[in-house]
Amino acid sequence: MTLSRADQENLAKFYPKSDGKPISDHNLQYEWIVTIKEGLEIFFADQPNVYVAGDCLWYPVEGNNKIRAAPDVLVAFGRPKGYRGSYLQWVEDDIPPQVVFEILSPGNRRQEMRDKLKFYDQYGVQEYYIYDPFRLRLEGWIRPEPGLPLTQIVRMNGWVSPRLGIRFEQEPGPQGPNQLKIYKPNGEVFLTPVQIDRARQRAEQRAELEKFRADNEKRRAELE
C-alpha cells in the first residue's frame, strides 16, 4: 500500500515512531544489535523485497496504538526496502515480521522476555532469537507450522535459520568459550562495522601488493 505524505503524517500522530525507551542500555548490547542488523542488511542487499530494521516499532493491529513492540532487529520478507518511522502491519499487506531478534542488556527481566515471546507468538512471528552477550547465552523459538505456537529450539549451536539461511555457532573467543558467531551460507561471518572496515583495508592492501608485484613482473619481462 502506498500512502500520501498527509496520510503518513496523520498515521504518525496516532502511531508514534518512538516508545521513549533507549535503543540499548549498554554498548555491548548495542554493538550486537548493529552487527546483526547490518549483517542482515548486507546479506539481503540484492533482494528488494526483504525489509530489515532495527528498533522499529511494530503495530500489528489497526486502530490500536497500545498493541506494539520494538524488536531490536526485525526481518519482513515480501516487503520492500525503504525508510519507515514504524512498521504498520495493515499498511504492509498485513505481513508480520517473520523473524525477530532481541539482544539482552543487564537490566532485562525474565518477565519482560516472557511477555515479548507471548506477543511475537500471538502476532505471527515465525522465528524468534534471544542473545545475551553478557552470559553468552543464545535461545531460539520456531513456529513448526502455520497455526502452531512458537516452540523452543532444543539445540542452538549449529542451528540454521530456515527463513534467513544463516547459521549460529558458539565458539571460543575473546569474551569466553561460547561466544556467538553468525555465518552466511558461503561461510562468511557477520562482522562489526570496525571489523568490516579493517577487512576492507586488508583487501585494499593485498590488491595494491598484487598490483606492485604484477608491475614488477611486467618491467622485468620488458627488460629481458
Tags for this entry?
six-stranded mixed beta sheet; 224 residues; two-stranded parallel sheet; globular; alpha+beta
In short:
The chain has 224 residues and is an alpha+beta fold.
Describe the structure.
This protein is an alpha+beta fold and 224 residues long. The protein contains four helices and ten strands. The chain has helices spanning 5-14, 27-43, 110-122, 193-223; strands at residues 50-54, 58-59, 73-77, 87-88, 99-103, 127-132, 137-142, 151-152, 167-173, 176-183. A hairpin with a 4-residue loop joins strand 6 (127-132) and strand 7 (137-142). The mean pLDDT is 89.
Strand content: 15-25%
The spatial strand order of the largest sheet comes to 1-3-5-6-7-8
The portion of residues assigned to helices is 25-40%
Report the sheet with the most strands, covering strand number, pairing sense and barrel closure. 6 strands, mixed
Number of helices: 4
H-E order = HHEEEEEHEEEEEH
N-to-C span: 68 Å
Tell how many strands the DSSP assignment holds.
10
Shape: globular
Low-confidence stretches: none
Summed over residues and divided by their number, the pLDDT gives a mean of 89
User: Which structural class matches the secondary elements?
Assistant: alpha+beta
Radius of gyration: 21 Å
Q: In terms of topology, how is this protein built?
A:
Elements: H1 5-14, H2 27-43, E1 50-54, E2 58-59, E3 73-77, E4 87-88, E5 99-103, H3 110-122, E6 127-132, E7 137-142, E8 151-152, E9 167-173, E10 176-183, H4 193-223
Parallel strand pairs: 2-4, 5-6
Antiparallel strand pairs: 1-3, 3-5, 6-7, 7-8, 9-10
